[in-house]
């Protein structure tokens, strides 16, 4: 395996982070045993973002201090290191790091093992974790299995560029606004001025935009697409009201780089991208802050769907006990406290002290509206299915037709559901 495709991070001391315990650390091992033999564990990064710095600072180096005999290596998924290729080579890694909404990518190959036995054996208290994240993971098994544990969770916010609002004399957005209110504001700041085109708000794709409504795309019982519904019609109506502001222009600038986008809804992990931009020679050329995520009147107080970054143990691993030790430590109170203070990842542990510490060490979050983080609830995830991707693809394509005036909402959704079901039927026939 090429070194270009496998990142092996050397173990050095952490210069800028001090692991500080904060009380209860359920399930963490303690003293080093005399018979601990050196072992190298490989972690497969699948979809979920994990930078080299994060892997080194929050995984490799703290783990080496706790367990000197365990070395952790990172294998990034790419064309050559695909799941299929690694399975065929009988060389799949010991651990999987992935996002909860992409867990099916490994579940369909029966890769994540059920952790219930190891949890019981090691007396781990699963009630410590964010229970929404736990329920999301449980939804990937109908046998009562727990196929992963959350390493970090997320929250929804709306960022805004103060400079644009000041330029046009428009009041800043505030916490608790509805989408109708935000759309009205976006119309005021979407304009060309001094040769620069300023955009009101980037709505993402229609599936992500609509996640606060918890709309399923496939019926888990029948395995058929369910897109031609009142819920999706309502989501299309909201989305079209946003895209109509720009007269069909669908090119949106980067919030942190261009400085011409007034508002942007996002998960909180965007703070990592903002910090990176602030460290570039160009830096952040404008003042910014954030509010709560705008609410649909049909789902007041809810933001994007629950999303966690999770840790699983491969069923093919020869070092399952050691791999579980890694998960125990990475979800311990001491590591989670260091993680949340960094201000990029929200803790997976349901402890208000840990949550309140979010961003304490972040250079970009000083003076920001931190309380907005706690005012929006994560929307419930619909039950996932193996066929969701087929439905989502048609859902997004159908909205493009609506936006471009090539189909009305009812027709677009009816055709999208039919096309999705044709693809699902084909897929079922090939299984």
TrEMBL record:
Residues 1-20 form the signal peptide. It comes from the Bacteria. InterPro entries: Bact_solute-bd_prot1, SBP. Keywords: Signal. The keyword Manganese does not apply. Transmembrane segments: none annotated. PANTHER family: ARABINOSE-BINDING PROTEIN-RELATED, DIACETYLCHITOBIOSE BINDING PROTEIN DASA. This is Extracellular solute-binding protein. The lineage of its organism: Bacteria, Bacillati, Bacillota, Bacilli, Bacillales.
